[in-house]
Inverse folding.
């Protein structure tokens, strides 16, 4: 885990990098400003990589699944949550979104008092219209949309929750109605001067960014699953209404294509405003971190970042390691650089803020960097000074230890560093063990103080063969390094945006 580190030289490095490679994002044009020769994932992991299950699972992300993305997406249909979701706050919820062919939509957000979504508290029914506009100039693979709300309804399910909502709404909008459980109330309607949604920090800014994926497996070419990603929710509740998404929430599943083992999908799909879904009860267990954990999919982060992760926690010790593979595309086919980190972590303590979560303190004391395409290698060599390895010594595919230079100023990393983490252990519909760690702050800062600890989670990692010396822990870089294809002109805007950002990693 590393903190933000921004200097004029850092900005210059990133500006040069993006001027060189931001013209590399056109999938149709034959012209190339920078030719890239990315290093294969096998080579970058070394000898051990070839002999364990984790290797196979990460390679599967690159080679095993065929993913098609429709732009603009045809999202007409019914989409539902595949599990109990956690939003910053925390808020526990499930979602059921209907999009119709006439561009109208009806969204149900079911909120709960517990982290397994077994105790419904209230539901919001949101109606409106949605119109896709264009491919996102900020998040490659996404589609920007315009949306318009027409009505927001509220139904609560217990007297204590209703009383709590009554107080919030009276303070935010002067609500005069006396709320009752199991009755619906209009929080907002188009054309009205009163907006009571403020009291719930409600926002549908998530609809400004969409991505729909169809996933095909080589062995089952006739079958596919459809997933809908909508924009991320700001980690600061007070910023939700002004937030423009640059990442995604957990995907929603199309009810026509989801796997039959998804019990939550079945339950949520038949719920309605007056009959909220109640998911199966589960028992929380303290995380058993020992072993290896890898990404289930190519992950997208706010700040135009695509990566896969691999964690390892050593047996009978508090040592962790990590590899973070960064890519220039949203399906993780074109690697740009990797980071290997190592450090220690404290014993876990049950969270008093996030039900089911466990709090840890992580330190990072060692780090290595591997440039994995020509553009990144060249620009690391351009960076002056010895604040990121030895000046001018970078070679394609060759790992370099940057611990002696206290990290890598070019990548915005400084060592040593401490962060306050949140973990949760669960399982997917097939019974595989999953490990969740804290969501990175939307504003790019670092959770380097206890009060900055996350209250929601990143995409889960799945357990793979344990007991081998390997790698692991969170590595978030709020920028995107080069690849070998061309881009449409709008991507030249990136350098101008990036010089305004603080670049945080891990």
């Amino acid at each position: 885990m590393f903190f933000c580190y921004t200097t004029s030289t850092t900005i210059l490095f990133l500006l040069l990098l993006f001027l060189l490679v931001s013209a590399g994002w056109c999938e149709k044009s034959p012209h190339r400003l920078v030719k890239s020769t990315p290093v294969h994932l096998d080579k970058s992991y070394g000898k051990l990589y070839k002999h364990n299950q984790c290797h196979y699972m990460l390679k599967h992300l690159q080679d095993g699944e065929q993913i098609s993305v429709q732009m603009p997406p045809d999202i007409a249909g019914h989409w539902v949550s595949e599990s109990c979701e956690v939003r910053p706050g925390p808020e526990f919820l499930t979602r059921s979104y209907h999009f119709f062919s006439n561009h109208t939509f009806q969204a149900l957000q079911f909120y709960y008092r517990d982290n397994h979504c077994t105790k419904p508290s209230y539901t919001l029914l949101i109606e409106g219209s949605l119109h896709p506009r264009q491919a996102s100039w900020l998040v490659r693979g996404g589609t920007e949309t315009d949306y318009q709300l027409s009505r927001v309804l509220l139904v609560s399910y217990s007297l204590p929750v209703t009383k709590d909502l009554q107080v919030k709404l009276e303070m935010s909008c002067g609500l005069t109605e006396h709320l009752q459980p199991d009755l619906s109330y209009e929080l907002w309607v188009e054309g009205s001067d009163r907006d009571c949604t403020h009291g719930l920090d409600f926002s549908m800014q998530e609809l400004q960014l969409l991505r729909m994926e169809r996933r095909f497996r080589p062995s089952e070419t006739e079958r596919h699953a459809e997933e809908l990603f909508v924009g991320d929710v700001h980690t600061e509740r007070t910023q939700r209404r002004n937030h423009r998404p640059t990442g995604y929430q957990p995907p929603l599943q199309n009810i026509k294509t989801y796997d039959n083992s998804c019990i939550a999908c079945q339950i949520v799909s038949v719920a309605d405003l007056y009959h909220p879904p109640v998911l199966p009860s589960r028992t929380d267990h303290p995380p058993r971190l020992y072993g290896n954990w890898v990404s289930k999919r190519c992950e997208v982060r706010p700040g135009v970042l695509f990566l896969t992760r691999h964690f390892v926690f050593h047996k009978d010790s508090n040592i962790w390691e990590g590899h973070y593979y960064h890519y220039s595309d949203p399906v993780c086919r074109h690697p740009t650089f990797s980071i290997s980190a190592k450090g220690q972590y404290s014993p876990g303590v049950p969270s008093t803020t996030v039900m089911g979560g466990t709090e840890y303190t992580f330190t990072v004391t060692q780090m290595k960097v591997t440039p994995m395409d020509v553009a990144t290698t060249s620009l690391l060599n351009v960076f002056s000074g010895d604040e990121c390895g030895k000046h001018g010594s970078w070679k394609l595919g060759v790992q370099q230890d940057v611990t002696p230079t206290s990290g890598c100023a070019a990548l915005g990393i400084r060592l040593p560093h401490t962060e306050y983490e949140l973990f949760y252990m669960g399982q997917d519909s097939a019974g595989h063990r999953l490990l969740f760690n804290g969501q990175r702050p939307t504003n790019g800062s670092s959770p380097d103080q206890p009060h900055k600890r996350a209250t929601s989670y990143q995409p889960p990692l799945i357990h793979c063969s344990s007991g081998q010396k390997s790698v692991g822990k969170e590595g978030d870089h709020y920028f995107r390094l080069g690849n070998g294809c061309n881009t449409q002109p709008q991507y030249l805007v990136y350098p101008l945006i990036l010089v305004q950002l603080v670049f945080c990693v891990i």
Remarks:
- Helices lie at 8-21, 41-45, 53-64, 159-173, 263-269, 374-382, 494-498.
- Confidence is low (pLDDT under 50) at residues 2-37, 43-51, 467-505.
